[in-house]
Amino acid sequence: MSENEEDISLIERFKQGDEAALEALISRHHEGLFRFIYWHLQDEHEASDVLSQTFFKAYHKRDRYRPKPGVQFQTWLYTIATNLCRDHLRKRRRRPGDFAAVSGEPGPLEGSAGTSAEAGPDELAAQAEDIAMLRQVIASLPSSLRDALVLSVLEGRTQKETAELLGCTVRAVEARIRRAKELIRLEMSKAE
Known about the structure:
Elements (H helix, E strand, L loop, with lengths): L2 H13 L3 H23 L2 H17 L12 H22 L26 H20 L2 H12 L4 H8 L3 H22 L1
Helix pairs in contact: 1-2, 2-3, 2-4, 2-6, 3-4, 5-8, 6-7, 6-8, 7-8
């Protein structure tokens, strides 16, 4: 049974009142969805709130989910999350003084940046600055480029999976990733 078939089975069980099926769906998709939301919002607390809203909305709209050939449940879930992130960012822009600035605390993906335990304080400080700058540049990318980059490169999904989640072609994903990397290189070179 494929992942999508398992998801569909869990949804059907949940629609019939099996609460354990909801727990299983949340458990399966929680981590990847959180990382995806975090890269949109760049704030762990806000990402947690939006993650909860995503599952809440999916719970209340579960009867609207209709499995289609080639369309995964995960695509539907990520679409809900993307829309909630956009709404959240729109609200944030209207109240620029209301949201927390990046705190400087390590985020959920910070450990993957390759900091060395043998590095001295100056090197660690330089690496932390580079990481912060990279996070800022990724956050400033247009959402279509950022989504493709985060899903494919940072989360390690295949380009086919990324295309399915974003509702586009594999070629579009390739082009978006290439453009995102070009923009990142350009912005990072300006900072040097």
